[in-house]
Amino acid sequence: MAPLPLSAPVFTILGGLIEERAGLHYRADDLELLRDKISSRAELMGFDSLLDYYYFLRYDAAGSAELDALVEALVVHETYFFREADQLRVLFSSLLARRFTQEGPVRIWCAASATGEEAYTMAMMLADAGLLSRARIVASDISDRALARAKSCEFSPRSVRILPPGGEPRWIRRDGDRVRVDRSLCDVIEWRRVNLIDSAAVAALGPFDAVVARNVLIYFSDQTVRQVVAGLGSALLPGGLLLVGASESLLRYGTSLACEEHGGAFFYRRVV
Ligand SMILES: C[S@@+](CC[C@H](N)C(=O)[O-])C[C@H]1O[C@@H](n2cnc3c(N)ncnc32)[C@H](O)[C@@H]1O
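^ thats the input. predicted complex w/ S-adenosylmethionine below
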């Protein structure tokens, strides 16, 4: 079925509403992408005009829940085990090593964990290093659907497209066309739904020794990145570290966090 027509002005107001709710930013050349996804959702809800769908989202009592469902349809959960793992190895084996010898649990937040592979990767690394019982891992995402998948411990083989140097981790078991992660790892992770643009929710979670927020800032405008990074920075303990994706340098945003390079990876430290 052909998608519903989306004019430039309706694209602007719908895009604005989505950005207000979830921070997701769409440029003019994303119009077709957005039209196809919104159109499916609008038709499912019985609309034949995207302007009417916009009014429903904005003003109807049921609009807020539908806006969450629309965001669910738009977010991209691309992730896999051991993605950008060298940065995590440096974090655990070097930057947090002394902290692990000190009193109190080491608090780590995986802040856009999608379907959980990144948080499980951290748990596997810490378990293999004998440090898991010293850590508290919080894993969050805006998407309830992604979090439900994470908690199911069940993945597709595509999630295991990269193996760590020691080969397939002992925590992963292949079962036909599914991959299962040891349930004990799921149980030590605290799974939460958190919208990163909700600064009160972000502040309430902290403080952390490290916040891992990788491959999510790319979906936000510069202004939202600044706001989210400021929030994540305040969720860090003094001396705590923020990790972003390899393609997400923060230097052009003028953050108050200090950029450090260790083992070929970048880290942003809260200095005050
Ligand atoms: C591409 S995945 C990144 C997953 C993982 N961090 C990694 O690097 O493999 C991006 C995730 O960010 C989440 N996301 C997008 N906007 C968000 C927001 N405002 N708050 C929290 N999570 C958000 C999406 O639901 C998605 O699961």
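The chain has two domains: 8-74, 85-269.
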